[in-house]
Amino acid sequence: MREESEREQRKAGEWGKEARRWLEASSARGTQIVTGGEAELRSLWEGEEGLFNAVGLGGLAVSLTRDGCARCTFRIPSHLTDGEGNWQTGAIAAAMDDVGAAAIVSLHGIIKVSVQFDISYFSYAKLNEEVEMEGRVVSTNGNLTAVVVEARKKPAGELVAIGRQWMSGARGKKINNSKL
Hints:
4 helices; globular; single chain
């Protein structure tokens, strides 16, 4: 029994590392897209795999991916703001979706797809403001996993948005580099 528990803990630790690698790779790719010019934009237009996730995550710093939790900090870049310098709601939703997915990967080892996603917006985050996003798995029911993701301004902790989503593993897939 103890040996099985230790094996499960090792597996969960590996899943946390995979979640971190996935988020960090998306962040690096996002930075590359924003600074890469026409060739990078063309690959985005042509639908290269993984680019949608990457566009809104450039510069993301991952601080934790473990046991159903993912925590990151992010400085709002100009390409994700509206005409008044506010972080666009669609960009918030995309980032929250990815952080929630990473929380699930850190617990279950697979990327799941969103089947329901509700977001409440409380305040604006402005250009160059730093925000912290934290996703937590709150429930698993068969193939469904519930995640809550909060985005807060740093350092005061003012709530920008909270997302609640159900994600399904019925068609989930393992991370490309995973050996699990």
